[in-house]
Amino acid sequence: MWFDLKILIKILSALALLTVLVFTVFAYEISNGFRDYTSYCENFIPQLEKYYKNNGQYPDTLKAFKTSAWDFRYSYKKCGYQADHMDNSFMFFFGDGWIDVVGYDSKTKQWWRD
Questions:
Q1: Which of 2, 14, 92, 100 could form a disulfide with 104 if both were Cys (CB 3.0 to 4.6 A apart)?
Q2: What is the per-residue pLDDT across 13-56, written as a single tens digit (0 to 9) for each?
Q3: Which helix (H) or strand (E) segment is 42 a member of?
């Protein structure tokens, strides 16, 4: 035979590995690093409402709020939290993957996706 079966197996194995690697990198990129920021940021809502009830306004940042030790892959800064002291409301605003933008409006108490 003009080709060696061992070389063919190595080439096909390398192509299969490369395909898996490319797919994993692509999936990581479009899924925001396999993170779900909607669920993560949603955990702040009850804490924000409690803060508002006790202080009459929403805080300027989420920094003071506690998160689970298991949330080491997440950052409160990525929630895009913004307090509106004039309107007594807040919102979250962040990218989800390559194209989508996700947000939460405390006035309507609804999540939205654009």
A1: 92
A2: 989 888 888 877 766 655 556 678 888 999 999 999 999 999 99
A3: helix 37-42
Q: 68 is written with which tokens?
A: 């689970």
Under 8 Å between Cβ of 81 and 90: yes
**pLDDT tens digit string along 37-49?**
888 999 999 999 9
CA-based radius of gyration for the chain: 22
Q: How many CB atoms lie within 10 A of CB 62?
A: 19
> 0.70 cut: is pTM over it?
no
Q: Which residues contact 95 (CB under 8 A, 6 or more apart)?
A: 32, 101, 102
Token look-up 């999540």 returns: 111
Q: Collapsing DSSP states into helix, strand and coil, what is residue 95?
A: strand
What's the token pair of residue 88? Answer: 């007594």
